[in-house]
Design a protein that fits this description.
The structure is a single chain. By secondary structure, this protein is of the alpha/beta class. The strands form 5 sheets. The protein has an 8-stranded mixed β-sheet with strand order 10-6-5-1-11-15-16-19. Strands 3-2-4 form a 3-stranded antiparallel β-sheet, with helices on one face. A 3-stranded antiparallel β-sheet has the order 7-9-8. Strand 8 and strand 9 form a beta hairpin. It is globular.
Length: 532
């Protein structure tokens, strides 16, 4: 029978096998797993080592937890530095020098002196909440080639690009950031917020008329009173800097000092309590710049949901439910603009994003979204309709896929990681002044993916013969890459050192890169032995 290697998989127009035109390969899926961001406010630390030339191994030192506005400097600005031996018994002096109790304990355990160390920092993770998400979007938004060994994926007509996003961390981060945001009415009386039309809905907007005041002559008594007033205000400011602040206020001042204004493309300061998920929900509409390719976003909450999807194509994600009243969800829309029509538009936007259960006062975020929408084939009278947008029959069961027909051609991971761990959630259990560790669920299982999880899921051969993988997280080339290489015949790319996501925000094309100019590494499966 004439044909090429795909002939037996073409099917025929109209049959259930999914028709593929001549000389095209079968449809396949491109999967991107996106881990969650940290609690950026609680993750400030420095790297401490003996001075250059020692050849020793240093340690990560948590910055001292702030309690006041003044102590925020020690937390986000001051790296650990030598402490005067004459003041070594004073805990406040250690804090002023950038030392947390965790760092002091580590220093003592190593029998190092503070005068012998050098520190790099302070720094934190994920100041920009969407550094993993934006990296994943750029993988398919741009089409220029990567430098080897990186390979940019190129989906074709009928393929599916699926983003699996770990939702719980983004829910936490959204709430955390909005609680600290200058757009939150709770902070409307803070310095720099009150009267600022960017944040304060009551502030006048646009150019204001200039009113000339008559010349006023001040008496000696006036000058004395004004001098006393300035002195009183200075004392009040000093007292305010020493006042113990609640966590949300500490976070607010940290946010305002470590981020700049939002831009048209980048949300640095949360504008509402749903803006992050609004951003995530828009991914299918623009992220994949290839014609006739379906784009899906699946919000998962447990590693098993990912592994089941890889293995069988079944989507078992749970609804994302938050206990929030309808009035709470509309608060921002109401205070942002009193205009009736604008308020109605904002309210409709919320209803489009959430399924509201009025009886229980809860919003359930849809756990998947896709584009293009499934075409309506008949009108209300049952007459057939014409549609121009491409739709493959292999997409009919969205969000599920038939893994026997649609194999996985590419797998990417963006998120925190260690050499043998993809950390789906990290940095949410530690307080300020503590070092983050891998989070664990209530059942005790790590919220992470491991090589053995993939080995089990990929044992049933859900991959194409030339499938590729790229692991964009830290250190994944050390153990994860070699473990996956036997399954991905097209190669696995990863870094054997830290990878830097912080430059993502600098422009629209930056991707993660290994730190210090280190290279990406490619891991290939060993060729099968030839027996004679």
């Amino acid at each position: 029978m004439a044909g090429n290697k795909f002939s037996h998989k073409r099917g025929a127009p109209g049959d259930d096998s999914g028709h593929n035109p001549i000389n095209s390969r079968p449809a396949q899926e491109y999967i991107v797993i996106v881990g969650g961001p940290t609690n950026t406010f609680n993750a400030w630390w420095s790297y401490v080592d003996l001075r250059a030339g020692s050849g020793s191994n240093g340690f990560w030192a948590a910055q001292p937890a702030p309690r006041t506005l003044q102590e925020i400097d020690y937390y986000i600005v001051t790296p650990p530095s030598p402490v005067d031996p004459a003041k070594a018994a004073d805990p406040a002096e250690w804090q002023r020098r950038g030392w947390s109790q965790q760092a002091i304990d580590e220093l003592n355990q190593r029998a190092w002196k503070s005068s012998d160390i050098y520190a790099w920092g302070p720094e934190t993770h994920d100041r920009y909440w969407a550094n993993f998400v934006d990296s994943a979007i750029r993988l398919y938004f741009h089409k220029d080639a990567f430098a080897p060994p990186l390979k940019r994926p190129t989906p074709q007509r009928g393929d599916i690009v699926t983003y699996l996003i770990y939702a719980p961390s983004y829910e936490k981060r959204q709430k955390l950031d909005y609680d600290a945001s200058p757009y939150n009415p709770d902070h409307r009386n803070k310095p720099g917020i009150y009267g600022n039309p960017t944040y304060d809905a009551t502030a006048p907007r646009g150019p204001q008329p200039t009113i000339e005041l008559p010349h006023i002559t001040y008496t000696v008594q006036d000058e004395i009173r004004m001098k006393e007033e300035r002195r009183r205000r200075a004392i009040e400011r000093a007292k305010f800097k020493e006042r113990f602040l609640p966590e949300t206020e500490l976070n607010h001042y940290i946010l305002m000092r470590t981020t700049s204004e939002n831009t048209e493309k980048v949300i640095k300061r949360a504008t509402s309590n749903y803006c992050y998920f609004d951003y995530l929900e828009q991914i299918p509409s623009y992220a994949v710049q290839y014609n006739d390719v379906m784009t899906k976003v699946l919000f998962f909450s447990h590693p098993d949901q990912v592994m089941t999807y890889l293995r069988t194509g079944s989507w078992i994600g749970e609804p994302i439910v938050r206990d929030i009243s309808e009035s709470d969800a509309e608060d921002y829309a109401e205070q942002e603009d009193k205009n009736e029509q604008r308020y109605a538009d904002e309210r409709q936007l919320i209803q489009d994003i959430y399924d509201f259960d009025a009886g229980k006062g809860r919003y359930g975020l849809k756990n998947f979204i896709y584009s293009p929408p499934q075409p309506v084939k008949r009108d209300v009278y049952g007459r057939p309709l014409k549609w121009t947008m491409y739709w493959s029959k292999l997409w009919n069961d969205v969000p599920q896929v038939n893994r026997t027909k649609i194999k996985i051609g590419r797998l990417d991971y963006f998120g925190h990681s260690a050499s043998s761990t993809m950390m789906l959630q990290w940095g949410w259990k530690n307080l300020k002044g503590q070092i983050p560790e891998v989070d664990k669920s209530d059942s005790g299982s790590e919220l992470a993916l491991h090589p053995e999880d993939f080995e089990s899921a990929l044992a049933d051969r859900p991959l194409t013969a030339d499938a590729q993988a790229c692991l964009w997280g830290c250190h994944l080339g050390k153990a994860f890459g070699p473990r996956l290489a036997p399954f991905f015949r097209g190669g696995v790319v990863g870094a054997e050192t830290l990878t830097d996501f912080e430059k993502i925000i600098h422009n629209d094309t930056n991707m993660p890169e290994p730190v210090g100019g280190e290279p990406w590494h490619e891991y290939m499966s060993a060729p099968a032995a030839v027996h004679h």
